[in-house]
Protein 1
Amino acid sequence: MAMLTAFRTTTLPRFSSSIFASRLVLVADSDKFTHSLAEPWAGLVHIVQQKGGYSHIIAAANSFGKNILPRAAALLDVSPITDVINIFGSSQFVRPIYAGNALCTVRYTGSSPCMLTIRSTSFPVPAVSANSRSNEAPISQVDLSTFGEDSVGKSRYVQHTSQDTERPDLGSARVVVTGGRGLKSAENFKMMEKLAEKLGAAVGATRAAVDAGFVPNDLQVGQTGKIVAPELYMAFGVSGAIQHIAGMRDSRVIVAVNKDSDAPIFQVADYGLVGDLFEVIPELLEKLPEKK
Ligand SMILES: Cc1cc2nc3c(=O)[nH]c(=O)nc-3n(C[C@H](O)[C@H](O)[C@H](O)COP(=O)(O)OP(=O)(O)OC[C@H]3O[C@@H](n4cnc5c(N)ncnc54)[C@H](O)[C@@H]3O)c2cc1C
């Protein structure tokens, strides 16, 4: 089953749910959507757009949205705008370029629909109305009679593997502790996991740490990894390459521990400690109380 939310509105002022004139939840009930494969989902967006004639199609700039939206845009023959971090009116958007070192304001002048992926960390969570009825939306079934076998594409679901963890999701965690190549080994990286446990944090890693095999690549933060903006971001043994900074610079408070006082991470850190992480982390672990 696939669920899409449709809105009728004249403007897009930062997605406040209260401004939407009318909402509709579209439900497409078919086992073709069970495993979130991009091809059938893109085909579904295509069908929904052909029937609904929406002005905008928006997906989160996460791996799921980034997988589907460009495919759907190709089917609809429009050019998507990716990684939107701010919205002015219905056709003007801000997006980062050069690994976040510059912001670019773009105006969409193509044909309808305007398709966007947005960085959800750049937008406030919309207030939920105290009136529960205004949080409700009617549900409508999508007619899949024109959804041909071709729309399913060539991908086939094989299996899903994921790490069972009680830790918060990296993309939405309030605290993230990230380890870099300075950790030196997968064994040493376990210190980050202990620290995360004590802080109720998610664990992140640099690409160098991922490439060295310390952790799987779903923990990578940065331009080619996840974009995070937690309340507290702690970086240990991370040099602060622009591609890494691009994924965490919007964090509210950044703490960096590095033995090199010239490491670029200190340029974005609110609190920096020049020191050896192999001394700092054990001391932190000792002093932090056990999580209740
Ligand atoms: C197209 C492209 C995309 C990329 N995308 C990403 C991305 O998404 N995310 C990402 O992270 N990188 C990305 N990179 C790689 C990026 O350029 C850097 O190579 C990488 O971020 C470096 O990781 P690091 O800081 O762990 O390693 P290093 O740069 O090697 O830094 C290790 C740091 O650890 C410190 N250190 C060592 N030992 C200790 C110790 N005992 N105590 C304290 N500090 C210590 C060192 O002083 C050093 O500053 C990308 C690169 C390219 C070209």
Protein 2
Amino acid sequence: MTADIIDGKAFAANLRAKVAAMVPAFREKAGRAPGLAVVLVGEDPASQVYVRNKHKTTVEAGMESFEHRLPADTTQDALTALVEQLNADPAVDGILVQLPLPKQIDESAVLATIDPDKDVDGFHVVNVGRLSTGMHGYVPCTPLGCVMLLKDRLGDLSGKDAVVIGRSNIVGKPMAQLLLAENCTVTVAHSRTAHLPEVVRRADIVVAAVGRPEMVKADWIKPGATVIDVGINRVPGAEPGKTKLVGDVDFAEAVEVAGAITPVPGGVGPMTIAVLLRNTLVAAHRLADVPYDEKAI
Ligand SMILES: NC(=O)C1=CN([C@@H]2O[C@H](COP(=O)(O)OP(=O)(O)OC[C@H]3O[C@@H](n4cnc5c(N)ncnc54)[C@H](OP(=O)(O)O)[C@@H]3O)[C@@H](O)[C@H]2O)C=CC1
Ligand SMILES: Nc1nc(=O)c2c([nH]1)NC[C@@H]1CN(c3ccc(C(=O)N[C@@H](CCC(=O)O)C(=O)O)cc3)C=[N+]21
């Protein structure tokens, strides 16, 4: 039997449309548009693509987009000063500093400078703490997008066995927290995990966030399991000189065993940007003191 393909691209388009539909009422009440500032340091080509996509989708949703491009040799002080300026700017509801940052910059110090109430990426320690204690804050976009796809597919996640492969601050750890909040029994696997294939084989839900192309094989997956592939890996393509994107799951194999699976591209990736707009919409409502129905999106 072949798995159902979870269409993250279509789900994300629907989510963006829902966000866009709520912008006019916000504008009416607040007298301004929701605003998202994206800061890009350096010229990493992949990051430039993401930043361009974010700008385009932000504008399409009727929001204000502020783009700040800084040279690769930007100092810590200059970046911190920009973040502080954005914190103070009433037109800015959400601030995203694109990661990774150049090596002369202390990433956690920069993230700590972002006003937690404008931290639409959910990377500030205050929001990490809010997530782990069940308070309302901002949840990292990629894991929140994954949970939306899972709930859409499976409904209530209570009691499901979930294995998250990867424990980074931006994907693995918040993913595990969110699944725990959904009453899953969560295992977090990483590079030191013993017997990884056996651990993964227990799971009703597998989330792969490793950064290793096609690492998760079909015989690691329990038949019928739901597989969420977060990995974005650029590898050599069929023709010389061409590249293609693959996930952390061997899709061609896994699709024969899983019950449902996200493709790469077209799975989790598009969800990340749609959730970013959703988080910015929520931030705008909170900062402008306009009531927001948390169940709306
Ligand atoms: N779709 C999207 O929007 C996004 C996609 N991504 C993609 O998701 C993937 C993960 O990203 P990110 O979390 O930032 O990556 P990191 O490199 O920060 O973390 C990778 C994690 O995988 C673990 N790991 C590495 N090798 C193995 C192995 N052989 N077996 C088991 N675990 C292993 C590491 O373990 P340890 O901690 O022990 O080192 C680590 O916890 C990447 O492909 C990235 O491009 C990331 C962000 C957003
Ligand atoms: N502060 C910060 N926040 C982030 O959320 C953040 C970041 N830094 N740094 C980089 C990672 C990566 N990331 C992606 C976003 C969209 C796609 C996406 O749209 N992917 C498309 C394909 C895009 C393509 O073709 O290259 C897809 O999977 O279908 C992928 C990856 C956000 N990240």
Protein 3
Amino acid sequence: MSRIELDRVVVRAATPGGPVPEVTILEETTLDLTEQRVALIGPNGSGKSTLARLVNGLVEPTSGRVVVDGLDVAKKGRQVRRRVGFVFTDPTSQLVMPTVIEDVGLSLRHLERDRERRAEAAREVLASYGLAELADRSVHTLSGGQRQLLALAGVLATDPDVLVADEPTTLLDLRNARMIGDLLLGLRQQLVLATHDLDLALRCDRALLVDDGAVVADGAPAEVVAHYRATASG
Ligand SMILES: Nc1ncnc2c1ncn2[C@@H]1O[C@H](COP(=O)(O)OP(=O)(O)OP(=O)(O)O)[C@@H](O)[C@H]1O
């Protein structure tokens, strides 16, 4: 199992022209995440995405260190990004090739240099996710659920050790949200899941409640979700 460590991490952002030169997006946070499935929950704008993005270097700490399996994200960014897959809320941002098969092929470019073998491997990936019939379709003609599944298939095809998913079910209908949720929770990889779906959070092994740029509760999902519900209802 993987290990994600945050050592006194602070994230600040400049606010050009704003009343204050810098805002704190994440207050000093120290975490040691070794559980298989870690949920990040909390209100809009609380800092969940920021926390999730720190894990693969999409957000850099202003101070402190993020370490994934012993690799400092700031120093070994490329190596970390090969081990840490990322799935966004809106899969469109990560589907960049004209057709479904080409998109999976792009994900596989580091693993298989030979074009034909890569296309074959891409077809196998699609088949294993039930997407074989869509191979030659434009990604823009897919439904939201198909697109999210394709984005996930592309990332998982690279066999990452950790998967970070930032609200991956938010745009999906109930059936697709359940399908993607079940898939994520069944992965062998360590999962960091930022989500507003508290039922999904409850099925994780650990939950962190983020509020106003700080982790305010951390522990068993049932307790953390109960705490969130109690505080959210005022
Ligand atoms: N680069 C930046 N510059 C200024 N402010 C930022 C920057 N990135 C994030 N923020 C702010 O930091 C706060 C936390 O944002 P973040 O996206 O991490 O929240 P979130 O919990 O994922 O929200 P949501 O549930 O709405 O997706 C928000 O107020 C956001 O506007």
